[in-house]
Write a structure and sequence with these properties.
165 residues, mainly beta, 12% helix, globular
């Protein structure tokens, strides 16, 4: 799959336990996963399923937990869907060296979407436009968030929206 070219180019799969395959089972909803990555700098990897891959952002200070809080989120290469279950140690000499553990996971939908197809269309358009809002349904993250692209194409803000009363 073309979307995974950068992911595969950065890794030596004879040395890293990261998944190469993009095993994808069509689920009833879109999934998200947040992995705590203890690499050269501890950060959280925030991943949203879209178009059979995990769109990915490195969030240095972790996802915001309070309303209206904002966190820098640097977009990185797409990861294969199979990465949703990855936990383990990436060897020191490899790209992303360090340990990764699942911090949260669940499903998500585009804010205001009524079905899966509408959610996917909205998220694709938002990714192109540089602004998307979605509702996370995980064990830790269970609110509405937005990703808003800054002037630099790889830099975004991950924002926890105010809870509606």
């Amino acid at each position: 799959m073309m979307a995974l070219t950068a992911y595969r180019r950065k890794r030596n799969f004879r040395k890293t336990p990261e998944p190469r395959a993009n095993a994808h089972r069509r689920a009833r909803g879109l999934i998200f996963v947040v992995q705590k990555h203890r690499a050269s700098h501890v950060h959280h990897d925030f991943r949203l399923e879209l178009d059979r891959v995990l769109k990915s952002w490195a969030v240095p200070k972790g996802p915001p937990r309070r309303s209206a809080n904002k966190r820098l989120a640097v977009q990185v290469e797409d990861h294969p869907y199979a990465y949703k279950d990855f936990e383990g140690a990436i060897p020191e000499v490899e790209y992303g060296a360090g340990t990764a553990e699942k911090w949260d996971a669940g499903t998500y939908a585009a804010e205001g979407a009524h079905n899966l197809a509408e959610s996917e269309r909205s998220m694709r358009a938002g990714l192109r436009r540089g602004r998307m809002s979605f509702v996370l349904n995980g064990s830790k993250l269970r609110e509405t968030y937005s990703l808003v692209r800054l002037k630099s194409p790889k830099q975004w803000l991950l924002i926890k929206k105010h809870a509606k009363e």
